[in-house]
Automatic annotation (TrEMBL):
Signal peptide boundaries: 1-31
InterPro entries reported in the protein's UniProt record: Uncharacterised_CreA (IPR010292)
A GO cellular component entry from the record: cytosol
Origin organism lineage: Bacteria, Pseudomonadati, Pseudomonadota, Betaproteobacteria, Burkholderiales
Family matches, as Pfam families: CreA
Source organism of this protein record: Paraburkholderia steynii
Protein name in UniProt: CreA protein
The keyword Ribosomal protein is assigned to this record: no
Keyword set, alphabetical order: Signal
Statement: the UniProt record of this protein carries the keyword rRNA processing: no
């Protein structure tokens, strides 16, 4: 007996496998929670907004601060809640900038899961060579659909520092 799967189902499975492979190749996000505030009380754990610091692994001296909502309650405690899509980013020079190796024109520098399987937060670094600036963009995606909600920030290079691009 042969089992026929609808094309939409096959496309979703293919998209899930592609997203999983991309996440496996992306650098691991090493977030450090800087602060959080409660926004909605639940007996089993409150919803909150967290601020996390991410040091750019390829650019020494740049840290990105991402604020985003975290769902509380039983699902949040068990790690199966889907966090809201909204996020905000601010990246700053926090020490002398050193770029040991040439950077890609655009690359994912951080990814973090926002739901059990299907939703991921991304921070993408873009090199603006004309202005000698690093631009950081944050957005979220899902296996089947993404979100247009995003936030952007930029870190200009100090005088005398040129961004090497490969």
């Amino acid at each position: 007996m042969k089992l026929a799967l609808p094309c939409a189902c096959i496309a979703r499975v293919a998209a899930f496998l592609a997203a999983s492979a991309a996440l496996a190749c992306a650098p691991l996000a090493q977030a450090e929670e800087v602060a959080s505030v409660n926004t909605n009380f639940h007996i089993t754990g409150s919803d909150r907004v967290v601020v996390e610091a991410y040091d750019d692994p390829a650019v020494q001296g740049v840290t990105c601060y991402v604020s985003r909502a975290r769902t509380g309650g039983i699902k949040g405690t068990l790690g199966i809640a889907e966090d809201p899509t909204e996020a905000s980013i601010a990246c700053r020079q926090v020490a002398a900038i050193k770029i040991p190796e040439p950077l890609r024109q655009q690359s994912d520098v951080f990814t973090e899961r926002m739901s059990l399987i299907f939703k991921t937060l991304h921070v993408v670094r873009v090199v603006d060579s004309k202005r000698n600036t690093l631009v950081y963009l944050t957005y979220s995606d899902r296996v089947a659909t993404g979100s247009a909600k995003n936030s952007v920030t930029a870190v200009p290079m100090p005088a005398g520092t040129t961004i090497p691009v490969r």
